[in-house]
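Request: When convenient, would you put together a sequence paired with its structure tokens?
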Amino acid sequence: MKNKILVASFESLTATSAGGIGHLGYKVAKELHQRERLKKFVVSAKGKFETPFSSSPVSFTSRYYLFLLHRLEKLFNIQIYKSRYLQEVLYDHFCSFHLDKTVTTLVTTTPYLFQTFQKARKLGITIYFIPGNPEDNYIAQLVHEENAKYNIQEDDAYTYLNRLNYYNKSLPLTNYIITYSALMEESYRKKGYGDKLISTRGYLKPDFSKHKTTSGQQSVFKVSFLAFTVLLKGLQYLLEAWKDLQHLNIELHVGGPIDKNVQNLIDEQYSDLKNVFYHGRVTDIPSFFENKSLYVLPSIIDGAPVTILEAMHCSVPVIVSDNCGTKDIVAEGKSGWVVPNRNAVAIKEKILEAYHDPQRTAEMGRNGKEILDNYNMQDFVTTLADIVCHNKSA
């Protein structure tokens, strides 16, 4: 009997996959199952969903304590990042019980696993961590800089000290960190994890089966932004650029929920901008991108935002910051542009370049769709499975 690999994801299982970075964990687990190497795919909660391979919630109680925590959030106005931290600690506690002597390798998409990693070390289990974001201390540094700039005093998930301390005592216990973008690799190397890094390249390609394609040039040039908007998504730099663009025959369409810090910033500094339309939560992404001329995501830091890929698939060319992990897929000047981080002037210049040459811009959108059409995520998943299977202790 071959030695087994346990895959652990903090995200919950959905009908066809798992949310966020858990989507990649699901794909890797499926590939390992086909190789007869998977022991189990462990998630936060599973509900009624079944997988074609062995999977389970981290605990039979997880659905109940998650429900209770969500209720307490609302009743006592608990900050979401504090509730998330409690969920992560509980996940860690229960995840450790899934390790035994039949497991030789642990593959995880979450680093907040101090108890689990400790037990894995004692059992001689090799630990592979596949991050969904750049290194947490680097993210926290950027959040602090933005908070200071805009006089924001509140913590968030990345600056909450309890959570950051848990991360900092957990991550050194890993054996390997598999990074799949230049940004991720650089951030972990700068924080002293160079000896643990295994570098590859790939993307979390979403399900495009129902996505529409933007049809040609539009009478009004429409710029789009779509995200669950926190300060790190960089909307403020796009709005700053918009001050010098609003007089043109051009519109800005902002989709997605906006957190209160960003909303306060909009109300204080950008409420009088013209031709800006806020759509709130977007449930039909293809329709949002339909008839858009350009997509801008000037993230201050972002691991692998799929909205860039969704825009490209809908034939919408993109402008992204150089601190965005998915920049690797952008062919400069052919499917979009990469601009310096936190630079409203550069954003304005590229929007103007696109605006003044709509024919070329539309062609760039078509080029981006072709790039994605030719990308096979399964090759990426196969590479990850090869890495964890070829470990000599596995």
Summary: The chain has a mean pLDDT of 92.
